[in-house]
Structures are given as C-alpha cells and as structure tokens.
C-alpha cells in the first residue's frame, strides 16, 4: 500500500511540474521540423498540370454509373474507363507536334477528317495543347 501511495504522489508531482512550468518542456529533436515558430518558406508554384482523364477531342469520360452483375445477381458498382491513348501528332498549320490524349473513337475521327477539321468540328482550340519537341 505504501508503494502505491508513493507512486501516486510521484505522478501527481510530475504532472504538476509539467503543467505549471511549460517553459522548461524540451521539444525532441525529431519534432523541430514541425514547430510553428520557425519561418516557413513560401510554396513554389508547380509547373506540372494534372490533366483530366478524358478525350480532349470528344470529351468522353469514365462511366461511373455502371454496375457489374454476378451470376447470383449481386450488383456491384464499377467504373468503365475510356480507352485513352497519348498521341503525338504533327500539326501542319501550327508547325509543331502537339501531344493529345485521345480516345480510340477520337483518334479514328482525326484519321478520317484530319487534325484541323476534326478539332474545328468539335470546336476545340488546338493552340491550348503543348508543343512536343
């Protein structure tokens, strides 16, 4: 019983010291990086742009309303993705290669009409796409 009471007194004194004198509390070295008192460098603006997973000509996106039905007729949600391909195409009027993300149907449309006619038909500006060297 004496050991238990001694332990309780020791813990209460240790807790009182920790709460009453917070200035003496030492931050571990591993936590220095997370302290708010150090100046934080401004974040640089990223040059990388995350492109959407859609056809840049037709605007096709993934079908998120699809369900798979098993033999026992249990229905599960699934996503039907678009058959996308990165294409590097020569644009004669712009005198440069452009990098496009096209679906298979979009690529067939470009092959059928040509690059300028296809993009004019769907009212998409070719100047917005990056030049590929």
UniProtKB/TrEMBL annotation:
Cellular component GO terms, alphabetical: ribonucleoprotein complex; ribosome
Signal peptide: 1-16
Cross-referenced InterPro entries: Ribosomal_bL28, Ribosomal_bL28/bL31-like_sf, Ribosomal_bL28_sf
Gene Ontology MF term list: structural constituent of ribosome
Family annotation (Gene3D superfamilies): Ribosomal protein L28/L24 (2.30.170.40)
Keyword Ribonucleoprotein found: yes
Pfam families named in the record: Ribosomal_L28 (PF00830)
Keywords for this protein: Ribonucleoprotein, Ribosomal protein, Signal
Entry keyword annotation includes Ribonucleoprotein: yes
Similarity-based family: Belongs to the bacterial ribosomal protein bL28 family.
Protein name per its UniProtKB record: 50S ribosomal protein L28
């Amino acid at each position: 019983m004496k050991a238990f009471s001694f332990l309780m007194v020791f813990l209460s004194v240790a807790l009182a010291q920790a709460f009453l004198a917070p200035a003496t509390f030492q931050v571990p070295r591993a936590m220095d990086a997370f302290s708010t008192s150090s100046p934080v460098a401004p974040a640089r603006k990223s040059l990388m742009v995350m492109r959407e997973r859609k056809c840049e000509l037709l605007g096709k996106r993934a079908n998120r309303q699809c369900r798979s039905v098993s033999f026992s007729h249990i229905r599960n949600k699934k996503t039907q993705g678009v058959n996308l391909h990165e294409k590097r195409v020569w644009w004669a009027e712009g005198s440069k290669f452009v990098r496009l993300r096209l679906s298979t149907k979009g690529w067939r449309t470009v092959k059928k009409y040509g690059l300028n006619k296809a993009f004019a038909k769907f009212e998409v500006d070719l100047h917005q796409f990056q030049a590929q060297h």
